[in-house]
Amino acid sequence: MIEGIFTGLLGLTDGVQALVTLAGLKQIVMLAIGGTLIFLGVKKDVEPLLLVPIGFGCLLVNIPGSELMHQGIDIGAKQVLEAMGPAAPEALKAMAKDDTGFIRSIYNMGIANELFPLLIFIGIGAMTDFGPLLENPKILLFGAAGQCGIFLTLLLALALGFPHLEAVSIAVIGACDGPTAIYVASQYAPQLLGPISVAAYSYMALVPIIQPPIMKALTTEKERTTTMPVVKRSVSANTKLLFPIVVTVVTGLIAPKGLPLMASIMLGNFMRECGAVTRLTKASENEIANIATLFLGIAIGATMAAEDFLKPTTLAIFALGFVAICLDTVVGVGFGKLWYVLSGGRMNPLIGAAGISAFPMAARVVQAQGQRYNKKNFLLMHAMGANCGGQIGSVAAAAVMLSVLKGLGLI
Amino acid sequence: MDKATFGLTMMVVGIGGTFLTLAILIWSIQLLKKIFPLSAEDGSKANRG
Question: Predicted ipTM?
Fold first, then answer.
């Protein structure tokens, strides 16, 4: 009996024993990374809604012996094996004993089939007022300029040796749009989903730190202090109502592979503007978006297993993601400077930095920088318009990319 | 397709396609604004809101 108790107690030390191996050391590093993500979310307010569940998922999957991401076999196959009885091959019988882990179930339910990013997009659409963009539609061009970092980073990723589809998935970090990055990576580079998602959300949160030095370096004092006229209200309710439908149809016709992304955000926006389905709008921007965010975060965190995450490619992905967002800002501000010249000095080029999808952070950064150099400068509404353009531009760029890939026969 | 050709194709068609898509959207918005100009009713709704 004493021997049994001793053996039983040894069983309780399995997890600790596993940590003192080489593989265990990697898991300790990942536990520290998971803890850091939780710390950043809770104490530093860095995208807490995402980083807390991602950090927790990372902790769970890196505890030795954790089978939360284990892929079992489906119920139908299990029933067939049971029906075969002793005649079933031993290897298959062993597989049948393994159940699908609880986080793997969440992953299969909403990441593998891209459902969660799309549910979040419906919520984002329901929360977004495209009014500032509709007041001055030409500012939508900043939303295109702000996506150039994606395509320049794609070249860099290819030069570093990443295969075609992995390079595309990494480059989409430059969209500054977490759900879009997850949507593309989950389809075409699921093995890189963890680092791509964490990089995308981390850099989105770091926009207020990354952008200002670039904005200052690329503009002159005169350009930065350029004042912009007050935005006059010129958009009817009917225009706001029809806008999401027009965007869905136009982008769907040009880039149908990206239609789920654009259609989701525009469905949410249409529900908001029509005012006839208030309950659905509120559910989309609250309960549905919150539940999808929680499940998405845990499942993404659980893709950060030590053996998959601690690789040189992870560092390369983080470096490329940083370059992508810097290039977005460089091209955006450069486009703003061009507009400044063409408009005879009436466009503040700082607005160009808001042409990314990080909403409303990028617009707030532009407003803060504008006021820093000229206290009488109120750029917020113009920057919000460019930022809305960035939201549409990021999805349009991803949609165009996917459709070009399809056209090239790569997907 | 080699990586250089792929990268340049994606860059040219990608940037061009994104600008084209958004340019069509700008035109569509301007058309919508012409068809549905801001009415007095819209203004009063905004004031109430």
Answer: 0.88
